[in-house]
Amino acid sequence: MSTMVAASLESLLRRRKPGHSLEAPFYTSPEIFEADLDIVFRRHWIYVGVEPDVPEPGDCMVIDIDRASVIIARDDDMGLRAFHNVCRHRGARLVHDEKTTVGNIVCRYHQWTYGLDGSLLFAEHMGPDFETACHGLKKVHLRNVAGLIFICLADEPPADIEDMARDLEPYIAPHDIANTKVVQQIDLIEEGNWKLTMENNRECYHCSANHPELTIPLFAYGFGYSPDGVDDLGREQIARYDGLVCELEARCEANGMAAREIDHLDDRVTGYRAQRLPIDQHGESQTMNTQVACKKLLGDLKDSKLGGLSVWTQPNSWHHFMSDHIVTFSVLPLSPERTLLRTKWLVHKDAVEGVDYDLRNLISVWVATNNQDGELVGYAQAGARSPAYEPGPYSVHTEMLVEKFVNWYVGRMSAHNAAA
Question: What PROSITE patterns does the annotation carry (predicted)?
Fold first, then answer.
């Protein structure tokens, strides 16, 4: 980052008004986008996938974060490892498919061959003094949090991933991600800056007007509401919702599952939040009829009415865990005004399509919701380009988590600038 860009960014960060959206350059500037990649995506823990993306020894997955390409591999001991997807000979890309299975990792260019632990096994014609031990694949830090895979490209990753793991594992573990399978993945390109995608996710102010499918199973009250002007019917609905929250917490805790809200979205380097929220009507799953989409429940769960566990991590993910299936979301920046939203749906590894679940029913709520959100993010990006744009105020009742995301972002960018 040039001195001029750093000074401009520092000025923008200093004058950020709490409780308001960011200034337009944060959403449109190529220079700030590059700073985001450097400071956020190359130095923090990034959510990239789940254990069943690479279920067996030799299974590999490739993740691209800007110019970095990373191989995530399952080794022969069932461990997970991550390496830069670059041959140590002359730098060719090694694995070209998003998902594949290999015996060893072999460079197509000159057949340098690496084991699943990243060690160089074979390099022909390199002479008697060549040391294979010095030319293994470059490692990338990886942390498996109860089946959610995070990587960090920094030399020294933030150590507080251990705090997040300790706090989140009791919430996630009963859903037994390791014994699930990915039955659908959809990549959606949103025409907006990655921060707008994240901000849109962190609130449900827009839900009642834009998400008819999502608001069948979910209560907007779960994401905040304004007490001003609530009529008698509204007060009855809020009281009912509050009662359902208490019932759900008791039900989950009786099943040995963590349920109560924990929130460290903007007070940690590795921010996170978790809470189980009630599901309306039948109370089972985030589906159009609010019943389970998969007859085979996850892990050892016996009770289908466990609401939905929502997990958020900074800077790029959110997740919904039900008794019967899981939906995970990762956000990866592509350009200042384009973002990849990757959504995966998981069910029990032994569930059979057409017998235990109908795929269309399983994915319908979030397919519709993602498409609607993508359109909204595009609207927000178009507005940020306008000379009339200026930061607007957040709702103190419904956009609290947006403020926490922006607080986290500004805090991490400012901390880097101060240390530079």
Answer: RIESKE
